[in-house]
Design goal:
The protein is mainly alpha-helical and about 100 residues long. It contains 4 helices and no strands. The chain has a domain of about 60 residues. It is extended, with a radius of gyration of 21 Å.
Length: about 100
């Protein structure tokens, strides 16, 4: 017979740790957009800046839309690899290809 107190004693601290981790990640990401816009102002003039910021927000929306579709398709595929492994391979291959170009 399972002991319910064991799972509760483990899941409580883990969920608190997960919440703390999420809080740290949120705090680190909070100033990214504002910092990026400030950073772009050091390179582009006023007429060009609006296009660059619009491109940033457009790419952010498109990546959010297509990442869900991509992950759904990958997790529906029949393969000897797990879905997360296939997603990892896709991300690594894109980063490996794009890295030297940057």
């Amino acid at each position: 017979m399972p002991r319910p107190w064991l799972s509760e004693s483990v899941s409580g601290p883990l969920s608190a740790l997960r919440r703390a981790d999420q809080a740290v990640l949120t705090a680190c990401e909070a100033g990214f957009a504002a910092s990026l816009i400030y950073y772009l102002t050091t390179f582009y003039q006023r007429g060009e800046l609006g296009k660059r910021i619009a491109a940033f927000y457009s790419c952010q929306c498109l990546s959010g839309a297509f990442s869900g579709l991509l992950s759904y398709g990958v997790f529906q595929a029949d393969s000897h690899l797990h879905g997360w492994q296939i997603l990892f391979l896709i991300e690594v291959s894109v980063a490996t290809y794009r890295g030297p170009l940057c």
